[in-house]
Design brief:
There is one protein chain. The strands form two sheets. The protein has a five-stranded antiparallel β-sheet, covered by helices on one side. Strands 6-7-8 form a three-stranded antiparallel β-sheet, with helices on one face. With 195 residues, the protein is of the alpha+beta class. A hairpin with an 8-residue loop joins strand 4 and strand 5. The chain is built from one helix and eight strands, in the order H-E-E-E-E-E-E-E-E.
Length: 195
């Protein structure tokens, strides 16, 4: 007896299985790509926050230190040898400067003997300004390499530019310090920060 009944399809054809596998692999690849992008973005944001926090802590420490500045022995673009006289404390010699990819703060020269303030430093730049907002080169008041130079009173402000390394590129942080011996801060220029 020959049965001419249509065949019941109880399974999937090979073409259907291949199409389903192809769609699943496309979805998996897309999900993996999105997840990788999310993780990379999270990592960059986290690293940015860490770098920012590290820079802000170092700049705050430098500001507190340089606000107590009472005399300058030697000043340069990346190093400052100075004295501080904090309120109710004795005067002490200090050095702040770049040592390789580290900014260090210490009690005396050389800078390399100081304590680490921040690492992964690309550059440190110290700029010295007079009361008129002119960028006064270090030769104007501190190249003598001696203490008690009367020209240190011409120092109005110090700008600190700190560049730190980051995976997405270098990040620059800046801060302005007014030494506490400057009493007439409001008489300075308004645009000196842009130099």
């Amino acid at each position: 007896m020959a049965a001419n009944t249509p065949r019941n399809s109880l399974g999937f054809t090979l073409v259907e299985i291949i199409v389903v596998l192809l769609l699943v692999s496309i979805l998996a690849a897309t999900t993996g790509l999105l997840l990788t992008t999310f993780v990379r973005s999270y990592t960059l944001v986290r690293q940015s926050a860490d770098v920012s926090q590290k820079a802000q802590l170092a700049l705050k420490r430098m500001r507190l230190e340089l606000e107590s500045l009472s005399d300058v022995h030697t000043a340069g673009i990346t190093t400052l040898y100075y004295r501080i006289k904090p309120e109710n404390f004795p005067q002490s010699d200090r050095v702040l400067g770049l040592d390789g990819d580290l900014v260090k703060l210490g009690g005396a020269l050389p800078v390399s003997a100081g304590n680490i303030l921040v690492d992964e430093v690309v550059s440190l730049s110290l700029s010295y300004f007079d009361q008129n907002g002119n960028l006064s080169g270090t030769s104007n008041w501190s190249s003598t390499g001696s203490w008690n130079s009367p020209s240190v009173t011409n120092l109005y402000a110090i700008r600190i530019d700190l560049t730190l390394s980051h995976d997405s590129g270098n990040i620059v942080f800046s801060s302005i310090v007014y030494p506490s011996f400057r009493t007439g801060r409001d008489s300075g220029p308004l645009n000196w920060n842009s130099q």
